[in-house]
Amino acid sequence: MAEHIVLSGVRKSFDRKHVLNGIDVGVEKGRSLVVIGGSGTGKSVMLKCILGILRPDAGSIKIGGEEVIGLKGSERDEYLRRFGMLFQGAALFDSLPVWENVAFGLIQGRKSPRAKAREIAIEKLKQVGLGPEVGSLYPAELSGGMQKRVGLARAVAADPEIIFFDEPTTGLDPIMADVINNLIVDCVKRLGATTISITHDMASARKIADDIAMIHKGQIIWRGPAKDIDSSGNPYVDQFIHGRAEGPIEMEVLKT
Fold it and tell me: Taking a C-beta distance cutoff of 8 angstroms, is the pair 247, 239 a contact?
């Protein structure tokens, strides 16, 4: 199957700090890629480059075979409509009720009538296990797990072809994290979407990934099926998935 998303030789630096050092990775249509790696290794920068929030210094990013770096104006707007995203901290608008948070992209981006958008929002909330009464609440009235569910409902509200998940289980207890993982799997299967997730949470990675890639110092150092992660034979992967302080990944620790 042809790859839906392809990054080739993508580089990005900030002054003298080289964050992406030639990223080569692809995702087939309808499959779920989880990118693991420590903090500051370039995971979020990679997603921002795909979305066009940051422009790479070099390389190519193709979606469906078309180069997308440098899109502007209406072309860029049309491109971004293909995406849904679950942000790390849910990133809900405090001043808007839950249903309007879910429907934000429909109303603002697609100019959907408010009544129709509200109908879709209530349906999407139902898909993540939240009743219609939650739609009239405000984010401050929700628990962390409920906020994350609302964020997921918003990510899938417009039935996107591509969804990004940025640390989807951060800050959640293990049981709620598993609930969110299950909801992600269900929503992605229902849509047939292509997904890229970034996470430190190996339980989450194992559950939602078809394939896992590890990024270290701005490069993909291992890529394979999720079921092969424990037998990768890569010392960096092995250290990361077992959370060991000792190994080839050296943490910068301030000595007092």
Answer: yes
